[in-house]
């Protein structure tokens, strides 16, 4: 249905384009200079007027169609007023399943009636949509075609449409941010209605189970996020412990010591490390690094957990090396050559120049880069989902297994789409914390980097 | 005067003390250099270790151990009218028994049949449905061995392991050796890895669903993020007035580029699935989430490309009477298109490897048929890797590595295309 409507719009818009531009040519007669706008703009204007309003209408319709039909179905269903939200959802999904022919058990007469109603509602909706789209498209086409005249500012009209689209496009970024903030705040608010904020922020037990039955022994879950934060900090710290020294040292070597040829070969190779998807690093950590560390631990008498923090953190550090290296690279490159020459001229060796002059001068840029990398480490998901643990432990032992914010978000939400229990809502509360922390780190880092750039 | 001069301590540059000091300073310099080399070696070494591990574990999944059997359909059991209902199980079993010259006692048959994939009857059935002229004839067909035997044939399971600690019994090894001696065992290239959809059985699992799921998601991602990103970039670079609102938009775009990917997944879950009610696990939703993630990249790339076009082009167009829109859409944009396309491909390559947001919107479902479009449930390449990495069967380890190699292959292709475009078409002014 929708596909046919789109096809109709494309054909109608093309026809409108030709009619309008032909008409413009006909009006102009022999003297094309009499027209304000060239015929092609009359055509394009007609094309926009035909297709775009109808297209927007279809999108809006699709957005609301489902919920309106649900509402109508429920209002006609006997006894629907007394149902809870979850029961309604279950009933609706059963009606939809039956409607597409997936019958698991004999439907009750109420459901059969609802299914019939669903089909008739759908048919009406399709008819209404089709009629509305045809009317809107034809009205737009008619308006554009009749307004073709010598004095009509078709180019201005078309360019205004283009500008409106461009303005809309630039607000998509803002809408995205608003969407993120709104959804996180809303779902987190629902969570904090059930679990007090203080319990979440300062509690030291994280056991996000929920009782399936009323009398279950596992009982209420505990949603104290401190152990999860501790795990996140531990793994991020381990990652930075690998990435910062290796990244900065390789940047120093590449900018100050390496020959141009060496640099031309090695720098792209380092950048390949940044292009590898994180799920690949996660698999690598599980398959190679974690068992190797465990073997090494056993051989010197240490007990290393199979999903130790050090394996996840170390592999994450490797992923971050090119990130730190290229940002430090930029910071070194921004230090003026004159400062370097001055230091060398008073007899400092290259190493002394780097350590005593270059590093202090480039430090703000490097710190900014490290903060950006830290925010990445905190938000990194797949490596820890695959290689870190699931159980929240209050420990800073890198050989032990810890969990992180992102791991908890993913494990709480995988396979669940019901947003009506604290377990799934907790994921959004964690997501809100993650968003706030990374936003904060990014803002500081960007400020440091920008301030530093202005100083030379 | 002279006595004052004598009290000033002048270093004697050629003294032993100074020479030692110099040596120390040079040594420190060399040490720093060595640390740098060590750091680079560490990073590059890990890159090679990563690739080597994947090649080592993944290579074996590109071949599949199969047995050549003769399927005899000359009996009247199979009619063209009821191909689905024909006794395929018995047909396949009797063909498999025919491979073994000595009679296998009934009590051992179970172990014998377990050597081959349990889906063999369906494979034969589908083959006959696709080639109806085979009905009533006898033909040769290659049946995959089941995962334990496949691993054994590839040397992943050793003969020397005690019998109770491996999944292949001595009896099965005996049969397998006989089959091998009779020449029916072969290891052809495993087209199933690319052409089959996902399966619970490693010997049949393939990436067809994941590849087409990724394709649909990337298509949606491109269709949204390319026009929106280019339009936003043109507006911000060429038209936007300098005011608070545009400042906010710019800061916003920079921040959006650094938001963790899992947060975009939460957005998709809450807004696209929860509020808009779009279908779960659909490439449409995956593509929409990915497009929001690639949008900042698109905008930044396009703005840089537009900025690199010399302003003389714009001024020349304006000078002969073009409107601002015409100057940009007819002249500046076409000239910067190669750079924009290069950036787009690189952005899409990043989107192809994104996993976490797709997990949250449910693209990690177990689905045994490739998606028919953007609305049907599907997996994507990275989520398929995640699913297989989580599967306990031994055969999935090498399949995961192979899937990663396929994913990396696509990434190399896309980046190669980007580099080619840049070298071939990009203009330096």
From TrEMBL, chain A:
Q: Where in the cell is it found?
A: Cell inner membrane; Cell membrane
Its membrane topology: Multi-pass membrane protein
The entry's keywords = Cell inner membrane, Cell membrane, Membrane, Phosphate transport, Transmembrane, Transmembrane helix, Transport
Family assignment?
Belongs to the binding-protein-dependent transport system permease family. CysTW subfamily.
Name the domain of life: Bacteria
The record's listing under NCBIfam families reads: phosphate_pstC
Q: Which residues cross the membrane?
A: 40-64, 127-145, 165-186, 222-252, 272-293, 305-324, 357-378, 426-449
Task performed by this protein: Part of the binding-protein-dependent transport system for phosphate; probably responsible for the translocation of the substrate across the membrane.
Q: Which residues form the ABC transmembrane type-1 domain?
A: 229-445
Alphabetical list of InterPro entries matching this protein: MetI-like, MetI-like_sf, Phosphate_PstC, PstC_N
CDD domains xrefs: TM_PBP2
Q: How is this protein named in the record? A: Phosphate transport system permease protein
| Pfam families in the cross-refs | BPD_transp_1, DUF3708
UniProtKB/TrEMBL annotation, chain B:
State the family named in the UniProt similarity comment for this chain.
Belongs to the binding-protein-dependent transport system permease family. CysTW subfamily.
- The gene is pstA
- Keyword check for Membrane: yes
Q: Known Pfam families for this protein?
A: BPD_transp_1, DUF3333
* InterPro entries the UniProt entry points to: DUF3333, MetI-like, MetI-like_sf, Phosphate_PstA
| Chief location category | membrane
Q: Give the protein name, as stated in the record.
A: Phosphate transport system permease protein PstA
The UniProt record lists the keyword Membrane: yes
* Membrane-spanning ranges: 32-56, 215-236, 256-278, 284-306, 327-349, 402-421
Q: Which parts of the chain are coiled coil?
A: none
Q: Which residues form the ABC transmembrane type-1 domain?
A: 211-418
- Give the record's keywords alphabetically: Cell membrane, Membrane, Transmembrane, Transmembrane helix, Transport
Membrane topology note: Multi-pass membrane protein
Compartmental location: Cell inner membrane; Cell membrane
The record's listing under SUPFAM superfamilies reads: MetI-like
Q: Name the source's superkingdom.
A: Bacteria
Q: Which organism is it from?
A: Hoeflea poritis
């Amino acid at each position: 249905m929708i596909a046919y409507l789109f096809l109709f719009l494309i054909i109608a818009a093309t026809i409108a384009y030709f009619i309008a531009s032909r008409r413009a040519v006909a009006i102009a007669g022999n003297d094309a200079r009499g027209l304000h706008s060239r015929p092609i703009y009359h055509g394009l204007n007609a094309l926009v007027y035909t297709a775009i309003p109808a297209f927007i209408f279809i999108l809006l319709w699709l957005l609301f169609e489902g919920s309106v039909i649900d509402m109508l179905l429920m209002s006609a269903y006997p006894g629907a007023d007394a149902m809870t939200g979850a029961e309604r959802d279950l009933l609706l999904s059963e009606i939809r399943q039956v409607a597409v022919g997936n019958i698991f058990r004999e439907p009750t007469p109420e459901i059969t009636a609802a299914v019939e109603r669903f089909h008739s509602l759908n048919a009406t909706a399709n008819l209404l949509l089709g009629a509305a789209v045809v009317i809107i498209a034809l009205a737009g086409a008619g308006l554009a075609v009749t307004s073709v005249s010598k004095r009509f500012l078709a180019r201005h009209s078309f360019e205004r449409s283009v500008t409106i689209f461009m303005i809309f496009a630039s607000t998509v970024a803002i809408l995205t941010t608003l969407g993120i903030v709104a959804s996180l705040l809303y779902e987190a608010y629902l969570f904090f209605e059930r679990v007090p904020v203080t319990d979440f922020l300062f509690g030291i037990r994280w056991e996000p189970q929920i009782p399936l039955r009323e009398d279950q022994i596992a009982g209420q879950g505990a949603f104290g996020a401190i152990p999860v934060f501790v795990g996140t900090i531990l793994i991020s710290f381990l990652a930075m412990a690998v990435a910062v020294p290796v990244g900065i040292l390789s940047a120093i070597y590449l900018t100050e010591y390496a020959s141009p040829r060496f640099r031309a070969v090695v720098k792209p190779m380092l950048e390949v490390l940044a292009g590898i998807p994180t799920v690949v690093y996660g698999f690598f950590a599980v398959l190679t690094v974690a068992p190797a560390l465990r073997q090494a631990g056993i051989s010197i008498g240490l007990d290393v957990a199979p999903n130790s923090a050090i394996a996840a953190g170390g592999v994450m550090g490797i992923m971050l090396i090119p990130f730190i290296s290229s940002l430090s690279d930029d910071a070194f490159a921004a230090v003026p050559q004159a400062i370097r020459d001055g230091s060398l001229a008073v007899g400092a060796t290259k190493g002394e120049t780097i350590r005593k002059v270059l590093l202090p001068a480039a430090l703000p840029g490097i710190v900014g880069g490290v903060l950006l990398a830290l925010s990445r480490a905190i938000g990194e998901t797949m490596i820890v989902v695959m290689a870190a643990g699931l159980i929240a432990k209050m420990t800073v032992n890198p050989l032990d297994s810890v969990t992180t914010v992102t791991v908890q978000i993913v494990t709480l939400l995988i396979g669940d789409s019901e947003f009506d229990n604290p377990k799934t809502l907790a994921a959004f509360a964690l997501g809100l914390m993650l968003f706030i922390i990374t936003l904060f780190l990014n803002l500081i880092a960007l400020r440091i980097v920008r301030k530093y750039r202005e100083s030379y | 005067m002279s006595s004052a001069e004598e009290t000033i301590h002048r270093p004697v540059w050629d003294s032993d003390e100074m020479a030692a000091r110099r040596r120390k300073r040079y040594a420190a310099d060399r040490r720093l250099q060595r640390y740098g080399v060590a750091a680079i070696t560490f990073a590059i070494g890990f890159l090679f270790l990563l690739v080597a591990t994947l090649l080592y574990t993944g290579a074996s999944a590109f071949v599949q151990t199969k047995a050549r059997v003769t399927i005899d359909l000359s009996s009247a059991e199979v009619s063209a009218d009821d191909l689905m209902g024909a006794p395929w199980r018995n047909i396949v079993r009797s063909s498999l028994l025919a491979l073994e010259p000595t009679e296998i006692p009934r009590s051992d048959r179970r172990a014998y049949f377990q050597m081959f994939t349990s889906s063999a009857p369906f494979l034969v059935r589908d083959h006959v449905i696709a080639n109806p002229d085979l009905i009533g004839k006898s033909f040769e067909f290659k049946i995959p061995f089941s995962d334990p035997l496949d691993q054994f044939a590839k040397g992943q399971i050793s003969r020397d392991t005690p019998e109770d600690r491996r999944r292949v019994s001595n009896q099965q090894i005996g049969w397998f050796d006989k089959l091998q001696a009779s020449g029916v065992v072969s290891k052809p290239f495993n087209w199933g890895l690319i052409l089959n959809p996902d399966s619970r059985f490693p010997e049949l699992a393939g990436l067809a669903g994941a590849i087409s799921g990724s394709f649909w998601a990337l298509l949606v991602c491109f269709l949204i993020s390319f026009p929106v990103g280019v339009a936003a970039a043109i507006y911000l670079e060429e038209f936007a007035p300098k005011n608070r609102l545009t400042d906010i938009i710019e800061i916003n775009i920079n921040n959006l580029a650094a938001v963790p990917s899992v947060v975009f997944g939460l957005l998709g879950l809450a807004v696209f699935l929860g509020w808009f009610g779009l279908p779960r696990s659909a490439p449409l939703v995956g593509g929409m989430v990915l497009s929001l993630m690639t949008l900042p990249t698109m905008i930044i790339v396009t703005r840089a490309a537009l900025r690199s076009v010399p302003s003389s082009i714009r001024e020349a167009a304006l000078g002969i009477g073009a409107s601002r829109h015409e100057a940009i859409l007819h002249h500046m944009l076409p000239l910067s298109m190669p750079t924009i396309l290069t950036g787009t491909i690189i952005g899409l390559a990043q989107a192809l490897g994104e996993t976490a947001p797709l997990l949250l919107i449910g693209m990690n479902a177990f689905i045994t048929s490739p998606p028919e479009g953007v609305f049907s449930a599907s997996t994507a390449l990275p989520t398929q890797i995640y699913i297989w990495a989580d599967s306990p069967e031994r055969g999935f380890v090498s399949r995961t590595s192979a899937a990663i190699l396929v994913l990396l292959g696509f990434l190399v292709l896309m980046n190669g295309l980007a580099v080619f475009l840049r070298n071939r078409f990009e203009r330096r002014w």
